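User: My collaborator sent over this chain with a note saying "see what the structure looks like." That's all I know about it. Can you take a look?
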Amino acid sequence: MDACLVTEEIAYGCTGIGTAMEANSLGQMPVILAGNTEQKKKYLGWHMEEPIMCAYCVTEPGAGSDVAGLKTTAVKKGDDYVLNGNKMWITNGGKASWYFVLARTDPDPKAPATKAFTGFIVDRDTPGLTPGRKEWNMGQRASDTRGITFEDVVVPKENVLLGEGAGFKIAMGAFDKTRPPVAAGAVGLARRALDEATKYSMERKTFGRYICEHQGVAFILADMAIGIEASHLLTMRGAWEIDQGRRNTYFASLAKAMAADVANKSATDAVQIFGGNGFNSDYPVEKLMRDAKIYQIYEGTAQIQRVIISRELLTKAKQMAM
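Assistant: Without extra context I'll predict from the sequence alone. Here is the result:
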C-alpha cells in the first residue's frame, strides 16, 4: 500500500517518470517471486548498491496480449541457452542493466503456454543483445521505450528462473503484484486532471460568471471526483490483498481496469473544461490526455482485465454452486 501511495504522488507530477520508475518493479518482480538466493543477491542486491534500471522483456511485435504467441526462442546447448528473437515496447529498454526475458523453450507449437516458456535473467552487456531506437510515443515520453533484438545471445543455466517451462506462470504472476501500482499511477493522473480543471473553472468566466458556477461544468467535476475516489479505494484494496499475503488477481484487475478508464475520462473531461485552451500545448491538460491512454494498454489491456475479472467471477460462482 505504501508503494501505491508513493506511485500515485509521482504520477500526479508526471506519469512518464512514474512509469520509468515503476517498470523497475515489474522487471524485478519475477526475480522476487521465483529467483533463488544467488539470483536475488546478485540482481536485486545490485539495485541496492547502484542506481540501476531493469526491464520486463516479454511483449513482441506480433504478440502482446497473446503471450502464447511469442516467437523468441531459447535453445539449450550444453549448460547454456541461446536466445534469438525480437521484443517490442520494452520500458527502460535502453536504460536497463539487466532484463527479465520470456522465451519459448519447447518448439512444439501445440505445447501449452504453462509449459512452453522459460524465464531468463539476461545482462545488458551480453553479446548479441541490441536495444533499438527510442520510440516517439503519443504520451509518457519521459519513459524510455524500445525494441530489443536477441541474436545468438548466450545465457548460462544459472540465469534460468525456477526451471525450464515455468516462465509463463512467473511472468503472469508478476502482474498481480504490479497492477495495483499501475492503477495508482492512473489515479494520480486523474487527480491532476481534476485539480487543473477545478482551478481553471474558478478563473475562467463565461456569460458573466465563473464556469464552475454553470451546472454543466460543475457536474463534470463531480463525476471526475466520484471516479477518482472510487478508483483510489479499489487500488488500495488490491494493494492491501498483497500486504495480507493473499492472491489478489481479481482485485488487481478490477483496480487496473477502473483506474485506467477513469484516468482517460478525467483527462478528456479536463480538456473539455479548458475548451480551446485544452487543445493547446501551452496548457497542461493536453499532456494528461496523451499520457492517460497507455493505462488502457500496458500491463494488460482494458479488455484483458475484463477477461480476467469475468473468469475469476465465474470460477468463484461455480465453486459456490457446487
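A starting point for your reply to your collaborator: The mean pLDDT is 96.
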